[in-house]
């Protein structure tokens, strides 16, 4: 840029003539790119630069991969029960064993247990037995499974080299099943079915709420009455009725899928009302009028022009709904319609933990599944947050 | 720290402000220096987008997010001491003590700068009570007084109304009242009268002048109206591309401008005071002498506050608009101009009357009875430029989407073609297409206004209702835009309803002018005639208050006030 | 305004009727009736129930009547005599049962609501203003733990902690020695000592939700020009934020006010069961499970009425909060 | 003799609120021999009820006062309210004598007038009568009641009814001691012409409903709910009855209680029973661990909870007592032998099929995993120590042998599909859906392990859990279910004769044969189905048992029934139920440390709570 300076007689500062807005590259010496990009690219570009959000995204992806390869990743089958290891506490993985002479040697292993049965207290007592070393390996042969129901194989990512040795990295449950493996299998159901419900109530809530708030008048009146009825509707007998109506031949997963859909059919009302409230406030804004005058159809007005203003709220509501849906089974199971064994999901694992016995003596049954839910939810949240920030025009 | 000369209350030294954007750094303000003196007015004029508002905001440390004071000092006399505002933390107590109390700011965009959910009164009362320890009722009394001073009718009632019930000009005045509420020593007025009719504008400027004289208030006035500059400025600084290109006493600037840009500015001002030469009269333009739009007995009553309080925003309006004609609408702030425009488009439902529109095929349709679907095609042909550009731009859409939207929804362009068309439109209104990916809030007031114009032009309409479409533009760009519009009119046989307070613009641009007062069209006639030989008393007073862009001939002082007849 | 309220009140009448009909229908959706569930409980303890006796009971309870007759009888009783019917399970008039429980429900609901707002509002605002700060992340983390761990597990854990480390009588709102005793200082102390668990648990998910939603909505408003205007007046930051953007960000909460009470009555039922709280939720739950239909029906009717009033209230507040929302 | 009473009562006597003790006791009070020692007066017995649901529990603690009650070892019955109870040689006429001077808890005399009132209104008045009280019938006909004098009445059956005394003593069977005429007559139109008005005042439509609610004989809940005004013969009477307060119920000593200890002290020792109403068993568990409950074997005393309860003994200051099991098995696999589906019915009725499935079960590992090693593989049967023990019944098909099971099944359903599941006669995959009441946690655990075992022999076994009422409707009242699982049924002695559900299908608890049991009870019923000969002969044997009144004769017939059951092999099970446990505070005295666990022998009522005391 050329700056020509002339000294003027009455100008105290120098008389300056510039021939364009002054801009400079972001970094010294870098070329100025003036190519404008589309809005989506813009958002994506901003998203990519958010480290936390990207990490969260990576975790979400990872969780789905875990779900996809559950059979391979889990050292044991989720239903295999070993009575002698009921309530076995978690073992730690360690790399070295100390030999009797005091030197240590590399040996990837977990420690075995010494088990005692206490007849009076009716329990097994586990003591880590330092002398029992259970060597652990990668890509070991373990129980036979079919990957995706197709490929029969015995390879597991990790497992005890001698397949009859006990390896309970996260402990065992009350039937002596491996919590780690169950957690891995649980990812599959929890990260898929539950989220369908979130998506459905999201769509219903947004669409009906938007319409109600946008049009007002009798449309609003009708939708509001529907909301009132739906939200005051007693769900418990509905579930009980449904549980009776659904054919027994359906598998528990199918049943739960249907239930999820119905949960979402009932769960949209609060979002709808919130969306409506915002629409009532926003519909008279000038930019909406402007878009209308531009010839936007009402659908476009609603979804393209007004709804983006609710991005943050909707993202927040969705991330809040995710944990609720993942653990919904636990409360539904009170009524006998949540997911039930033999299906494995995080909610089912938590169901198993809802008693004092677990809280008092086997906290790992409670902690790990909860942690799984928390991690999933936090990831969704941080990813959603990143998305929000990326879509926020004020955020650079 | 350097001492300031005795009469200087604020000194800006080598101020630079950068915006770090996605692709580049924008130096919005570069090396700007000026001083504000007690009781004096510095007028900051300059091209739209040259950094005036950013400079003004930086004085209060409220520059928008990516903006950052990169360099320079802002020295404020603080009792015996001198504070460098640039070093203060934005939310800190000393900074807060300066805001409102020491430096009052009138924002450029009056329409969006007020809270939509609080009454005007409560917002002003609060401004009073932050800095002085008075009880609510005293503050309210003072608020009402302030509102009266800024010429808001029925101030005690209006104080309890909400922003959206105020017309553009009324909001601007409310904002002025708010800025004055803290009795600041320095008033920064960022285009404070753009939405005001000349009469009101004169009153407001008078009010400010009085305060300056009585309290020694210093003022930084940012404006595009060279007339106003001539009337009130002691000193003038001219900005362009983030720099002050010329600075000096008002007389010197007007009569011995150095910088080519300053000269261009003045030339444009003069040009606008004359009617366009060689402009073909509208009626002759059109082969068919049938009006394209006829408005009959149109009225709108706002009656939320009960029958007794019902307000006739538009009262029995009648006029015709012929193809290719530019009809100007002038009138007092709050007289119903915006409402009239909106009624024609049916974004506000009329209380009574009819609007007949003659479509391309020559068939007449009654706009008041159109269905939603029919309205949509009507809207394609009749476009509106909003008075409040900020509010009319979707904050979550990039400019490209905003301007492109009408093209997209009407299926006129997409992909590459869309982008090219948007770029072309932006260039047409003098915007750099580089800003295409920015969101509306990242533009200056004038730039936003041009975005609005570009959007209206995108569809090749038949009528454009332009509500204060050029108020935020500097004269040179303004004249360019007006010429552009005239050119388009010529080519496309377009008609304009041009709502404006700027009589010179109206005179330059319009064929006929309607004068509105309290919802009624009080006079309608040839532009030249209205501007030079008005018939009605109200019009006369209006014309008399037009400021003269010559500091040696301050006309505003000789204006006469119109007092409405008692029965109105 | 008054006209609007009146209109809404008028709407309520058919809506309530519709709701009562629908809920009465839904209550009867599950197979069987009160008798089935009664038999279920009895046979659970090893008793034998004679089918002939069941037939007889059916007749006595009027379960042989068609659905609409049962409904009409019930609704007529309410309309003509204010008689909500008889609870089979409790063997007493429904109205007596409902009102007793409503009191404690109200207390707990309001206290937890208060807790939620007191905790969540400042945190939500703080999180929005200081986005991505350490504290924001910490709040987020704990908030989501509160959400991700099912309420009753949280309840069990807290109760276990209270048992193990505080040696406190768990569950309920009073230690056994104070149940039925007149109010005294000691009893109040005991009451307060019991209150924290339910309030934290009922509040946990609500707090997290409120924080997140407030944070989301507030962030959107923080940059609006009117906020900058307020700032330019020289207002302290907290006032700027509290008066302007927070007010607009509250819109979703006001929209949701209609549910607060009904939700606290029925939404936290399982928590209340686990915590042994004498609130309406468990009673309703039992009534629904055991198909004690008049009790359940009346409860739901009451909740519906509360929902309707809540929604009207929320709509009025919405208009008050944001004058752009007007009613015609 | 000299009698003693509690101090609180002495105060009441001196204030004139109640008459002196000798006027309150019957001439011949029942003398109770304390289990350990004579106790001392005072103290509250802290108890809890879960859910407020099943008040039948109260028979266990304070309301077990039939004419005759079971002996503490459940070997027979002993007089209780009745001073004597005699039967004629044919088991047709029973002569009962009440205690002279015995009074209701409000001081009103308890006489044969009350019995007559019960007989006339509750038992035989068609307007209000409830069916039930089957022990008062023989051959479907009600017994005749003859009042001899104020204290004596006779019950005459048309056909021999040898089980009558045993049935009277059943937990909640006897209503004759729970029907105070002087209180209830006001609600009955025949006794009070204004009964209808009274009913309306109480919120009822007619006197019928009002009388029923007041008497409360339609179900146990109704009997106890809001019953604080109803006089009773129990050791404690409610001052705050369940339902009157939803948080707790309180019962106070009955000043007219008619039992004394060996030293003439009027019982009960303890002043009050206080029931906390707890909504969830987990909370009750915590409360018990905290020592807020004095005695508890219901709800919380599961094998799974034992370790936490064990650890908390010091903190809760309690210890355990043993409950000997009275149930036939921990879980019985019940196939629907009257299935509506022709093919399935045929298959399920095949004894070898059931035997094969039973052989496919690895019972020991089930016991290890779910029962913490407690128990021993067994079919639903009589326990070994009992004279009725039948080895075939107990042990057949319990040996785990997959190959044998497969071989047996290959005889019946040889064809298999591509996934190696067997096909039934129609070529459908052999899917058996077990419908389980989801509240039965042990079943759920067992089934998670059992299903793979069935799958290993080519049976596509599946489990569906459901809410209890749905289960009741589908299974107990339906005919479309494939199979289910249940427990209960008795494993010995008197109980086995009264509840032989797995040995002979006499009532609705015989879920394996819904149509046959109906035939037995009601031949005319459209849903009834005549059983095959071998089952019919079982039912005939049971009729014979009922007609027998001497215990030795009864035992003989019962043995035949059990042999028949072993041959029929209706159901199979997993394990003998391990002994249960209960917790009792260390301060509680006179507690029997080992007792049966049953509802019919309402644990621990026959061990006489009235003589419990606290130090
Ligand atoms: N939504 C509304 N509710 C109530 N009154 C309104 C509303 N909108 C406008 N008004 C009133 O109608 C009158 C005309 O307003 P309008 O906006 O048309 O004025 P205007 O001529 O455009 O003024 P300006 O030049 O200041 O923009 C004003 O007095 C205003 O207060
Ligand atoms: N938030 C932002 N992000 C990026 N660029 C910005 C932002 N705000 C302002 N700018 C740019 O800074 C420059 C100066 O803006 P400013 O508002 O000061 O102009 P102005 O002189 O007031 O113009 P006008 O007369 O049109 O109001 C403009 O080019 C504008 O596009
Ligand atoms: Mg500007
Ligand atoms: Mg206007």
From TrEMBL, chain A:
Bias type Basic and acidic residues, positions: 1-12
Keyword Membrane set for record: yes
Name of protein: ABC transporter permease
Domain ABC transmembrane type-1: 187-384
Major location category of this protein: membrane
Gene3D superfamilies: MetI-like (1.10.3720.10)
Organism: Rhizobium sullae (Rhizobium hedysari)
Localization in the cell: Cell membrane
Topology of this chain in the membrane: Multi-pass membrane protein
Alphabetical list of Pfam families matching this protein: BPD_transp_1 (PF00528), OppC_N (PF12911)
UniProtKB/TrEMBL annotation, chain B:
PANTHER family (alphabetical): D,D-DIPEPTIDE TRANSPORT ATP-BINDING PROTEIN DDPF-RELATED (PTHR43776:SF7), TRANSPORT ATP-BINDING PROTEIN (PTHR43776)
NCBIfam families according to UniProt: PRK10419.1, PRK11308.1
ABC transporter domain span: 10-266, 293-543
Superkingdom of origin organism: Bacteria
GO MF terms, alphabetically ordered: ATP binding
Entry-linked InterPro entries: AAA+_ATPase, ABC_transp_ATP-bind, ABC_transporter-like_ATP-bd, ABC_transporter-like_CS, Oligopep_ABC_C, P-loop_NTPase
The organism of origin for this protein: Rhizobium sullae
Record-given protein name: ABC transporter ATP-binding protein
Similarity comment: Belongs to the ABC transporter superfamily.
Automatic annotation (TrEMBL), chain C:
Keyword Transport found: yes
TM regions (residue ranges): 9-29, 98-126, 138-163, 191-214, 253-275, 295-321
InterPro entries registered for this protein in UniProt: BPD_transp_1_N (IPR045621), MetI-like (IPR000515), MetI-like_sf (IPR035906)
Location relative to the cell: Cell membrane
Domain of life: Bacteria
Membrane topology of this protein: Multi-pass membrane protein
All residue ranges annotated as the ABC transmembrane type-1 domain in the record: 102-312
Major place of residence: membrane
Keywords (A to Z) from UniProt: Cell membrane, Membrane, Plasmid, Transmembrane, Transmembrane helix, Transport
Keyword Membrane: yes
Family: Belongs to the binding-protein-dependent transport system permease family.
Descriptive protein name: ABC transporter permease
Source organism of this protein record: Rhizobium sullae
The organism's taxonomic lineage, starting at the top: Bacteria, Pseudomonadati, Pseudomonadota, Alphaproteobacteria, Hyphomicrobiales
């Amino acid at each position: 840029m050329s700056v020509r300076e002339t000294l003027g007689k009455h100008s105290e500062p120098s008389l300056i003539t510039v021939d364009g807005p002054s801009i400079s590259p972001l970094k010294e010496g870098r070329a100025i790119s003036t190519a404008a990009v589309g809005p989506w690219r813009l958002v994506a570009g901003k998203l990519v630069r958010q480290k936390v959000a990207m990490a969260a995204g990576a975790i979400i992806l990872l969780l789905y991969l875990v779900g996809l390869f559950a059979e391979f990743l889990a050292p044991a089958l989720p239903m295999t029960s070993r009575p002698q290891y009921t309530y076995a506490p978690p073992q730690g993985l360690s790399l070295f064993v100390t030999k009797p002479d005091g030197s240590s040697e590399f040996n990837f292993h977990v420690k075995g247990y010494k088990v005692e049965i206490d007849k009076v207290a009716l329990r097994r007592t586990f003591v880590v037995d330092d002398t029992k070393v259970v060597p652990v390996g990668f890509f070991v042969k373990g129980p036979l499974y079919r990957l995706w129901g197709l490929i029969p194989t015995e390879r597991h990512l990790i497992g005890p080299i001698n397949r009859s040795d006990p390896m309970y990295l996260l402990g065992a449950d009350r039937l002596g099943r491996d919590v780690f493996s169950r957690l891995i299998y649980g990812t599959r159901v929890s990260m898929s079915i539950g989220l369908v419900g979130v998506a459905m109530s999201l769509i219903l809530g947004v669409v009906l709420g938007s319409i109600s708030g946008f049009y007002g008048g009798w449309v609003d009146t009708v939708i509001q009455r529907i909301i009132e009825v739906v939200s005051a509707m007693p769900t418990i007998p509905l579930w009980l009725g449904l549980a009776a109506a659904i054919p027994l031949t359906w598998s528990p997963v199918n049943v739960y899928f249907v239930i999820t859909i119905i949960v979402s059919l009932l769960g949209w009302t609060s979002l709808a009302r919130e969306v409506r409230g915002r629409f009532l406030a926003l519909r008279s804004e000038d930019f909406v009028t402007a878009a209308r005058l531009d010839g936007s159809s009402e659908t476009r007005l609603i979804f393209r022009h007004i709804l983006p203003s609710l991005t943050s709220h909707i993202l927040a509501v969705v991330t809040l709904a995710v944990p609720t849906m993942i653990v919904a089974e636990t409360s539904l199971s009170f009524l006998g319609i949540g997911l039930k064994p033999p299906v494995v999901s995080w909610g089912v694992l938590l169901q198993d933990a809802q008693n004092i016995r677990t809280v008092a003596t086997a906290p790992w049954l409670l902690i790990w599944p909860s942690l799984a839910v928390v991690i999933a939810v936090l990831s969704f949240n941080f990813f959603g947050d990143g998305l929000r920030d990326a879509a926020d025009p004020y955020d650079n | 720290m350097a001492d300031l000369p005795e009469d200087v209350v604020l000194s800006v030294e080598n101020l630079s402000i950068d915006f770090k954007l996605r692709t580049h750094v924008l130096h919005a303000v570069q090396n700007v220096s000026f001083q504000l003196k007690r009781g004096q007015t510095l007028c900051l004029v300059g091209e739209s987008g040259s950094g005036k508002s950013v400079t003004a905001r930086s004085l209060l440390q409220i520059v928008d997010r990516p903006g950052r004071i990169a360099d320079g000092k802002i020295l404020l006399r603080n009792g015996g001491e001198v504070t460098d505002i640039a070093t203060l933390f934005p939310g800190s107590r000393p900074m807060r003590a300066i805001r409102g109390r020491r430096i009052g700011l009138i924002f450029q965009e009056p329409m969006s700068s007020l809270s939509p959910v609080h009454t005007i009164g409560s917002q002003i009362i609060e401004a009073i009570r932050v800095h002085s320890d008075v009880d609510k009722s005293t503050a309210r009394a003072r608020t009402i007084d302030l509102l009266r001073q800024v010429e808001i009718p029925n101030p005690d009632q209006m104080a309890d109304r909400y922003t959206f019930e105020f017309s553009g000009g009324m909001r601007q005045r409310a904002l002025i009242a708010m800025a004055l509420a803290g009795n600041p020593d320095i008033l920064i007025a960022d285009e404070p009268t753009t939405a005001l009719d000349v009469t009101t504008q004169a009153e407001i400027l008078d009010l400010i002048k009085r305060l300056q004289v009585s309290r020694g208030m210093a003022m930084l006035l940012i404006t595009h109206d060279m007339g106003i500059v001539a009337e009130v400025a002691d000193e003038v600084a001219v900005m362009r591309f983030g720099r002050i290109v010329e600075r000096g006493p008002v007389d010197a600037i007007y009569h011995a401008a150095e910088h080519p840009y300053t000269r261009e500015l003045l030339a444009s001002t003069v040009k606008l005071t004359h009617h366009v030469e060689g402009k073909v009269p509208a009626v002759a333009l059109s082969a068919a002498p049938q009006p394209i739009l006829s408005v009959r007995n149109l009225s709108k009553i706002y009656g939320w506050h009960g029958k007794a309080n019902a307000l006739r925003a538009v009262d029995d309006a009648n006029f015709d608009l012929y193809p290719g004609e530019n009809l100007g609408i002038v009138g007092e702030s709050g007289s119903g101009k915006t409402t009239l425009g909106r009624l024609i488009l049916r974004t506000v439902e009329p209380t009574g009357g009819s609007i007949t529109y003659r479509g391309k095929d020559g068939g007449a349709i009654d706009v008041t009875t159109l269905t939603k679907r029919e309205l949509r095609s009507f809207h394609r042909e009749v476009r509106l430029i909003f008075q409040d550009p900020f509010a009319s731009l979707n904050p979550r859409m990039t400019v490209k989407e905003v301007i492109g939207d009408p093209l997209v929804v009407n299926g006129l362009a997409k992909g590459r073609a869309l982008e090219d068309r948007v770029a072309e439109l932006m260039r047409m209104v003098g915007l750099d297409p580089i800003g295409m990916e920015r969101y509306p809030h990242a533009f200056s007031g004038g730039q936003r206004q041009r975005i609005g114009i570009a959007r209206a032009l995108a569809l090749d309409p038949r009528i454009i209702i332009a509500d204060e479409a050029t108020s935020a533009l500097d004269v040179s760009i303004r004249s360019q835009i007006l010429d552009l519009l005239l050119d388009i009119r010529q080519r496309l046989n377009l008609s304009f309803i041009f709502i404006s307070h700027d009589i010179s613009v109206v005179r330059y641009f319009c064929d006929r002018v309607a004068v509105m007062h309290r919802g009624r069209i009080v006079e309608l006639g040839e532009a030249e005639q209205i501007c030079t030989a008005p018939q009605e008393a109200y019009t006369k007073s209006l014309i008399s208050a037009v400021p003269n862009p010559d500091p040696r001939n301050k006309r505003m002082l000789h204006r006469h006030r119109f007092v409405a007849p008692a029965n109105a | 305004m008054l006209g609007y309220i009146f209109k809404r009140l008028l709407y309520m009448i058919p809506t309530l009727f519709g709701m009562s009909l629908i809920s009465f229908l839904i209550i009867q959706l599950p197979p069987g009736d009160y008798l089935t569930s009664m038999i279920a409980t009895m046979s659970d303890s090893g008793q034998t129930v004679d089918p002939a006796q069941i037939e007889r009971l059916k007749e006595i309870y009027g379960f042989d009547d068609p659905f609409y007759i049962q409904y009409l009888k019930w609704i007529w009783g309410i309309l003509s005599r204010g008689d909500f019917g008889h609870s089979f399970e409790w063997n007493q008039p429904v109205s007596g049962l409902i009102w007793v429980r409503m009191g404690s429900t109200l207390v707990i609901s309001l206290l937890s609501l208060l807790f939620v707002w007191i905790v969540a509002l400042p945190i939500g605002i703080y999180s929005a203003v200081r986005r991505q700060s350490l504290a924001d992340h910490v709040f987020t983390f704990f908030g989501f733990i509160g959400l991700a761990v099912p309420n009753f597990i949280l309840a069990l854990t807290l109760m276990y902690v209270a048992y193990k480390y505080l040696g406190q009588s768990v569950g309920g709102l009073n230690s056994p020695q104070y149940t039925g005793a007149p109010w005294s200082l000691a009893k109040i102390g005991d009451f307060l000592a019991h209150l924290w668990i339910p309030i934290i648990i009922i509040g946990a998910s609500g707090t997290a939700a409120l924080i997140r939603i407030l944070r989301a909505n507030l962030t959107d408003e923080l940059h609006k020009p009117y906020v900058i205007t307020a700032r330019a007046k020289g207002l302290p930051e907290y006032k700027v934020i509290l008066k302007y953007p927070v007010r607009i960000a509250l819109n979703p909460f006001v929209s949701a006010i209609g549910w607060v009470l009904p939700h606290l009555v029925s939404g936290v039922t399982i928590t209340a069961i686990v915590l042994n709280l004498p609130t309406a939720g468990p009673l309703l739950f039992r009534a629904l499970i055991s198909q004690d239909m008049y009790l359940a029906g009346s409860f739901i009717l009451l909740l519906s009425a509360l929902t309707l009033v809540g929604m009207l209230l929320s709509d009025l507040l919405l208009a008050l909060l944001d004058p752009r929302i007007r009613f015609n | 003799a000299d009698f003693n009473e509690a101090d609180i009562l002495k105060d009441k006597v001196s204030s004139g609120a109640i008459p002196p003790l000798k006027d309150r006791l019957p001439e011949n009070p029942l003398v109770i021999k304390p289990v350990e020692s004579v106790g001392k007066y005072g103290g509250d017995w802290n108890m809890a009820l879960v859910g407020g649901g099943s008040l039948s529990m109260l028979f266990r603690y304070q309301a077990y006062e039939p004419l005759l009650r079971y002996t503490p070892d459940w070997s027979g019955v002993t007089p209780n309210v009745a001073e004597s109870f005699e039967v004629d040689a044919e088991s047709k006429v029973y002569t009962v004598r009440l205690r002279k001077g015995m009074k209701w808890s409000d001081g009103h005399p308890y006489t044969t007038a009350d019995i007559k009132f019960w007989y006339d209104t509750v038992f035989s008045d068609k307007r209000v009568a409830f069916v039930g009280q089957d022990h008062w019938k023989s051959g479907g006909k009600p017994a005749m009641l003859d009042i001899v004098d104020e204290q004596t009445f006779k019950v005459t059956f048309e056909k021999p009814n040898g089980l009558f005394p045993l049935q009277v003593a059943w937990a909640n069977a006897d209503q004759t001691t729970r029907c105070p005429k002087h209180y209830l007559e006001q609600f009955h139109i025949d006794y009070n012409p204004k009964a209808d008005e009274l009913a309306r005042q109480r919120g009822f439509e007619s006197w019928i409903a009002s009388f029923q609610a007041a008497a409360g004989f339609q179900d146990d809940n109704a009997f106890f709910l809001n019953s604080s005004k109803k006089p009773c013969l129990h050791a404690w009477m409610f001052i705050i009855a369940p339902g009157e307060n939803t948080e707790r119920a309180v019962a106070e000593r009955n000043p007219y209680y008619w039992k004394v200890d060996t030293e003439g002290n009027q019982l009960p020792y303890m002043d009050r029973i206080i029931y906390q109403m707890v909504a969830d068993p987990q909370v009750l568990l915590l409360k018990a661990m905290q020592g807020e409950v004095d005695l508890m074997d219901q709800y919380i005393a599961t094998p799974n909870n034992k370790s936490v309860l064990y650890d908390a003994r010091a903190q809760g200051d309690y210890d355990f007592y043993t409950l000997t099991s009275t149930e036939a098995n921990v879980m019985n696999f019940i196939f629907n032998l009257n299935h509506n589906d022709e093919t399935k019915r045929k298959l399920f009725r095949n004894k070898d099929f059931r035997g094969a499935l039973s052989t496919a079960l690895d019972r020991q590992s089930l016991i290890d995993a779910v029962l913490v090693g407690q128990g021993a593989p067994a079919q639903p049967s009589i326990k070994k120590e009992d004279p009725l023990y039948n080895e075939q019944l107990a042990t057949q098909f319990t040996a785990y042998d997959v190959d044998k099971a497969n071989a047996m099944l290959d005889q019946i359903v040889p064809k298999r599909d591509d996934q190696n599941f067997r096909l039934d006669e129609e070529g459908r995959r052999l899917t058996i859906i077990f419908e389980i009441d989801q509240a039965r946690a042990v079943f759920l655990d067992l089934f998670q392990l059992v299903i793979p075992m069935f799958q290993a022999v080519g049976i596509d076994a599946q489990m569906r859990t459901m809410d209890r009422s749905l289960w009741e409707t589908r299974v107990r009242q339906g005919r479309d279910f494939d199979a289910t699982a249940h427990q209960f049924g008795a494993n010995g002695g008197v109980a086995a004769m009264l509840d032989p559900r797995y040995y002979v299908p006499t009532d609705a608890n015989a879920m394996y044969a819904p149509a046959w049991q109906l035939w037995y009870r009601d031949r005319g019923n459209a849903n009834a189905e005549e059983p095959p000969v071998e089952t019919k002969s079982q039912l005939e044997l049971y009729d014979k048992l009922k007609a027998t009144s001497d215990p030795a004769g009864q035992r003989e017939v019962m043995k035949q029934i059990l042999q028949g059951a072993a041959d029929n092999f209706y159901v199979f099970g997993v394990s003998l139920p391990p002994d249960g446990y209960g917790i009792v505070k260390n301060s509680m005295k006179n507690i029997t440390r080992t007792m049966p666990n049953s509802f019919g022998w309402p644990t621990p009522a026959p061990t006489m709570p009235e003589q419990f005391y606290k130090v």
